[in-house]
Amino acid sequence: MAYATSRIPGFYQLSIAERREILRLRADLTAADLTALDGGGIDPATADRVIENVIGIYALPLGLGLNFVVNGEETLVPMAVEEPSVVAAASNAARMVREGGGFEADADEPIMTAQIELLGVRDAVAARAAIEGAREELLAVACATLPRLVERGGGPRGLEVRAGAHPARVIVHVHIDCRNAMGANMVNTIAESLADRLAVLAGGRSGLRILTNLCDRRLVRVRARIPVAALAMKTGEFSGAEVRDGVVAASQFAEDDPYRAATHNKGIMNGVDAVVIATGNDWRGVEAGAHAFATSTGRYRPLAIWRPAEDGSLVGRLEMPMPVGVVGGTLRTHAGARLAQRVLGNAGTSATGLAMVIGSVGLASNLAALRALATDGIQRGHMALHQRSVDLTRTLADEQARQGQAKGEGKGKGEGGQA
C-alpha cells in the first residue's frame, strides 16, 4: 500500500470521527476495521487468556504520526503513548525532514542470538575447540528444531564461543535469522535444544539458556538531512542557522556526558516505544537492547548524533538495535495491533520495514526535543499540550463533584419522603 501523502495539514483540528474517516480512506479500511479503535483492540475475556490475574483493560491513546517519508515512501505511523507532545513533536520534525527528502534507512537481517551458559568447565580451551569442531552438527540440530522457520528462509546463521568472566564458565552464542518474527520463543527453543549436547562437549553442565536482548546483529540505521531554512522558528526568534548550531551543540553535549546522553536517548525512545507498543511488540526488550547498545563502547553514549553538512543543512544519524516483528505474539490476539500494522501499509509487512519506520520515528523525536531545547526550552510546547490534560482532569473532577452532590441531594429527599 502506498499513500498519496502522509502530510495532512490541520489533522489535529479535526474531530475524532473526521480523523478516522481520513484514515479509513488512506489505509483502505472498512468501518468494521475501525471498531478496534473503540475498545482498545482487546476485550477482557481475551485479555484473560493473554496474561494472568486479569481484572480489566488498561488503554493508551492511539494517535497518528504524520509527515513521514521513509526511503521515499509515504507512511502513516500509529503511536500509542500517554505523554503529551510526543506525537505532535515527531510529526513536526518529520515535516522538516521531508523538506530534505525524508528519512533514509536500512536494517540488518533479523538476527537474534541464543545464549547458552556452560558451567563447571575444567578446560575452557579444550571446550572451545570441541564445540567449534562440532559446529556443523550443532547447527544441524538447530535447523531440525525449527524446520518451518528454515522453510521460510530463516534459521541458524552462525555459532561462536566466548570465554566467561569466571574461568569455569563458557558461553555459546547461536545466531538465528527469525525472518518476520521478533523471535524470542524460537531463539529460546533453540537454546534449550542445544544445551545438553553443548554441556557434554564442554565437559561441564548447562546453566542459563535464553536469548540476549543485546541484539547487536539486528541494527537499524537512519539518516536525515534538514535544510537550514526548515529549522527556523516561525516566530522569527531563531534563524535556521541558530537552531542548527543549537542542535549540534546539544548532540555534542550528549556525546560528552552520560547524564545528558541518558535523557537524549529517552527522547529517542519516546517515539520508538510509542510505535513498538502500537504494533504489539515488546517495548521492554527494545529498551533493554537500546540502552545496552549505548554502552557498547564502554561508556554510555547517544544513539543519535547531529552534525552540520557542508551545504549548511543539519544531518542526523541514528543506529540502534530494533528487534521487532510483524507476525506472531500479540498480533494473534490484539485487534488494535493488527490495525496498526495495516495502517503502516508496506512498512507493516516485514520486520525490517517496520524497524526502519520505528528508527525514523526515534530520530524525529530526538530532533524535535533538541530543537526545542536549543530554542524556547522543552516546556513551552510540551506544557501547552500538557495543559489540555490538566484541563480535562479539572473538568472530570468538577463533573464527579456535581454527580456526588446530586446523589446526596437525591438521597436526602428520598429519606425525607420515607420519613
Name the overall outline. globular
CATH superfamily of the largest domain: 3-hydroxy-3-methylglutaryl-coenzyme A Reductase, Chain A, domain 2
Unreliable spans: 412-419
Q: End-to-end distance, in Å?
A: 70 Å
CATH class of the largest domain: Alpha Beta
What is the fold named in CATH at topology level of the largest domain? 3-hydroxy-3-methylglutaryl-coenzyme A Reductase, Chain A, domain 2
The domain tally reads 3
CATH architecture of the largest domain: Alpha-Beta Complex
- Give the rounded overall mean pLDDT: 92
Can you give a write-up of this model?
It is globular, with a radius of gyration of 25 Å. 41% of the residues are buried. The strands form three sheets. It has a four-stranded antiparallel beta sheet. The protein is built from 14 helices and ten strands. It has three domains: 11-99 and 218-376, 3-hydroxy-3-methylglutaryl-coenzyme A Reductase, Chain A, domain 2, CATH 3.90.770.10; 111-211, Hydroxymethylglutaryl-CoA reductase, class I/II, NAD/NADP-binding domain (Alpha-Beta Plaits, 2-Layer Sandwich); 379-419. Residues 412-419 have low confidence and may be disordered. It is an alpha+beta fold and 419 residues long. It is 49% helix and 18% strand. The termini are far apart. Strand 9 (304-308) and strand 10 form a beta hairpin. The protein has helices spanning 16-26, 44-50, 86-98, 124-133, 135-145, 147-151, 184-202, 228-231, 240-256, 258-278, 283-294, 335-343, 351-374, 378-418; strands at 62-70, 73-80, 104-107, 111-119, 155-163, 170-177, 205-211, 219-226, 304-308, 314-321.
